[in-house]
Amino acid sequence: MKRLLMTAASAALAVAAVAIAATSHTASAADKLKIGFVYLGPVGDLGWTYMHELGRQAMVKELGNKVETTFLENVNEGPDSERSIEQLARTGHKLIFTTSFGYMDPTLKVAKKYPKTYFEHATGFKNAPNMGTYSGRFYEGRYIQGVIAAKMSKSGVLGYIASFPIPEVISGINATIIGAQTANPNIKVKVIWVNTWFDPGKEADAAKALADQGADVIMQHTDSPAAMQVAAQRGILAFGQDSDMIKFGPKTQLTSITNNWGPYYTRAAKAALAGTWKAEDTWDGLKEKMVVMASYTNMPDDVKKLAMDAEAAIIAGTLHPFKCPVVGQDGKPVECKNGKNLEPGQILGMNFYVKGIDDKILGK
Amino acid sequence: MLLVLEKRAERSAVIAITSPLIAIALTLVTMSVLFAILGKNPIAALNVYFVEPLTDSFTLMEIAVKATPLVMIAIGLSLCYLANVWNIGAEGQFLMGAVCGSWLAVVTNGTGAGPWVLPAMLVLGALGGALYALIPAICKVRFGANEILTSLMLVYVADLIMDYLVRGPWRDPKGMNFPTTAAFDPVATVPTLIEGSRLHSGAVVACIVVMLAAVMLGRTIKGFEIRVVGAAPKAARFAGFSSDRLVLFTFAVSGALAGLAGIIEVAGPVGVLQPGISPGYGFTAIIVAFLGRLNPIGILIAGLFLALTFIGGEGVQISMKIPLDLTKVFQGILLFYVLACDSLILYRIRLITPYRKAADGTA
């Protein structure tokens, strides 16, 4: 046995020795643009990260061998992210997309160290000359979901699985209830905060709890299809999130707000290739097709028409979910500077509920 | 026919030391096979994984940053394990240390407090970790509660306490409701050793901890006591060593070290208190402790080696598009081989042919 171990050990050491001797740097063609992606979840989460991965693939398909891409998945938002981002920067990636809010400060730190590298941070609000931000106007889709949900709910109670009380999530809840109130002024929404973006177990538990409390339409701001599956088992309705989740609830899904990053990634890469890249704050919605509604299913034709009309009106610019007056939870109208609708800054930094939501923002 | 493990009469000192090396070698062979199955050149992959990170100052410093908390926690755990005390909850003690130390950073934030803040934070962190570790220790001594279970379950309690604080009372008012405290002031931040890098003075603290542990285990009565209680509890009782006191002592020390690692991590590379400050350091440190043979110098080497696997894993993800899961597989395989090699050193496998007498149950 000892002899066997020693033989195995010496074989392994020989392999290691060869490895040390080998200098096999994979040289990449100099004219290729190296693009890096930092993902929060696994690429197979079927939600947020999955859609970024599809966006990356769409870009690669479009630009072919002009680009070479790398992604790092499951990068935590704590101590590791700064190193991961810097690893990409120092290995020659000239355009780096960091795809979660929590990467904001680490991205900024690395951007300052690598002024010649372009950084794009999703859903954040800090910039640098070489660091832009991008996000979708997801609240537009939320409004449409609100209209559908209020029409489809028999109990008049909607269930909302929320992740973190950041402005994007708050504005989503508000847009939902504003849309829902157009169809049913007495609509109720119950919110459960799961404090995670991706935890199928917690998401499923929240969906069950909401169903037990009488909600018959479930919507979510978390990334997995778990809630959809629970809704399907309970025979109630639900909306997908991030991706089209129809295969998890063929008789359950009403629609889904899907994130379509491909065109944006392609655009940014093309700009970087052409040398015209600039740090910008991109905030695109249904009109630019960064936010795309999945097919309207499991609803009667009149509801479907209502939803499609709302979508067309938002695209045409004739309907704004946060049209003034927007009434806060305390019954007072929110300040409306331009007289028409809330300003982008008020939506991007939203930290109040509108009237009709029976919940309190944590810590407020 | 029956396979049994039979204790070897004598152990070879040489083999005991080379055992982890054999385990590492076997792991490398297995990894080569895995790389080949994935269609990657194993030699190139191992080169990126294990050699390239050692040839570059950036990755070397990052290895040190990653190894710092692992080594500090593992040193504390090794004291427990040597004394046959099973603290599995270092993760929770790490978090409680981070929480207790951060309290001072949060309340002094923006008040222009002096340079006393950081030392006080470190003391609070160590104290927090130690007190938190004493909960399972006291439960064991007083009520005979199994410390493996209690210390493990307290990890989740610590996690939730921290979660509550950063979402509620300690949340950064300007942080757009994101669950994080405000960025710590410079006086509440662990200084970096080299400008522009993330290598911080915590690495020095870890080295000092290693040296102190080596001296304590090798040269003091306390070290002797730990080893005797662990190896021969009966003899220890005859010698007048109290195993209860030792349970309290080892838990408190390992908790303090984990807590210190926690506050250093938060006040160093992270700079804020937020969920996800630990990617499982408290659990990875258990591997580090055993891989390092529960020996301080061994732990230092093992901690650096495991850190290398993280950094190298990222390297192969970037340059060879090899999935992250392989890094985890790697660590699992490594632990498997370490345990297997250990077993084969202490025991030998024997084939036994059963005979009639044993089969009728009267033997």
- Biggest interface pair, counts: A-B, 53 and 57 residues
Question: How far is the first residue's CA from the last residue's CA of chain A?
Answer: 67 Å
Can you count the beta strands of chain B? Answer: 2
What CATH architecture label of the domain at 63-306 in chain B applies? Orthogonal Bundle
Q: Name the assembly state.
A: heterodimer
Number of helices of chain A: 11
Question: The CATH topology of the domain at 63-306 in chain B is what?
Answer: ABC transporter involved in vitamin B12 uptake, BtuC
What's the CATH H-level superfamily name of the largest domain in chain A? Response regulator
**What kind of sheet is the major sheet of chain A?**
6 strands, parallel
SS class of chain A? alpha/beta
Q: How much is the average pLDDT of chain A?
A: 89
- Please state the average pLDDT score of chain B: 90
Count of discrete domains of chain A:
2
Specify the structural class of chain B. mainly alpha
- Uncertain ranges of chain B: none
The proportion of strand residues of chain B reads under 5%
Description:
The complex is a heterodimer of chains A (364) and B (363). Chain A has helices spanning 2-21, 48-63, 79-90, 104-113, 138-152, 167-183, 200-212, 226-234, 262-274, 301-316, 344-348, and strands spanning 33-38, 67-72, 95-98, 118-122, 131-136, 157-162, 188-193, 217-220, 237-242, 253-259, 281-284, 291-293. Chain A is of the alpha/beta class and 364 residues long. In chain A, strand 8, helix 8 and strand 9 form a beta-alpha-beta unit. Chain A starts with a helix and ends in a 16-residue tail after the last helix. The radius of gyration of chain B is 23 Å and the shape is globular. Chain B starts with a strand and ends with a helix. Chain B has a domain at 63-306: ABC transporter involved in vitamin B12 uptake, BtuC (Orthogonal Bundle). Chain B has 14 helices and two strands; from the N terminus they run E-H-H-H-H-H-H-H-H-H-H-H-H-H-E-H. The longest helix of chain B has 28 residues, at 243-270. Chain B has a two-stranded antiparallel ribbon. With 363 residues, chain B is mainly α. The interface between A and B is large, with 53 and 57 residues.
